[in-house]
Amino acid sequence: MIKQFENLLNKLRTFERVTIVFLTVSMIGLYGFNVLIREIAPQYASTFAWIDEASRILMVWVVFLTLGLAFDRGRHIAMTSLLALFSLKKFVYVTKAIDLLGIVFSLYCAWLGFKITVFVLNSGQVSPTLNLPMFILYIAPTIGFILLSFRFAFSFLNLTKRFDVIKDSLKNKAI
């Protein structure tokens, strides 16, 4: 069961990485092309005005999709120095509380994102240059925070070992 879970989590990470790299490279390529057009052939710049809007939408998606990966790699804000001050028993309780609060906060943010997405979807808003439905932009936080809540839940259930380095140092300190 654990092996299947690890396999599923690795597939999710791979999908996220590939998607983030694709979106980032697309955004950079489009924006670079746009700059070249403005410098080389400014008379055609208005033809490519959609690139600015597309780049902004891609950036929003990249930011929210990287929440889970940043969490996985420990590249988020954490107070590891404070956690190292606790005894091993208190450390376990505090980390479980952190994970539980993380789940609740992430799901709340996802819920807010969902409500905004539904509001924008019902309003029928479309982007000015791309003519895309604007809910595409607003669903990014919902998906990003759902993925982050999964990471907190995995940590809460001890399916990932994000606190092991600190826990090991506490065990060594107790010896």
Descriptive overview:
The chain is mainly α and 175 residues long. It has one domain (2-174). 77% of the residues lie in helices and 0% in strands. Helix 1 runs antiparallel to helix 2 and helix 4 packs antiparallel against helix 5. The longest helix is centred in the N-terminal third of the chain and has 39 residues, at 2-40.
Write the layout of secondary structure elements.
Layout: H1 2-40, H2 50-72, H3 80-83, H4 88-123, H5 135-156, H6 164-174
Shape: elongated
Assembly context of the chains: single chain
Summing up helix and strand content along with how strands pair, one would put the structural category as mainly alpha
Low-confidence blocks of residues: none
Radius of gyration: 21 Å
Helix-strand topology string: HHHHHH
Residues in β-strands, percent: under 5%
- Overall number of structural domains: 1
Q: Concise description?
A:
This protein is an all-alpha fold.
List keywords for this structure.
175 residues, mainly alpha, 6 helices
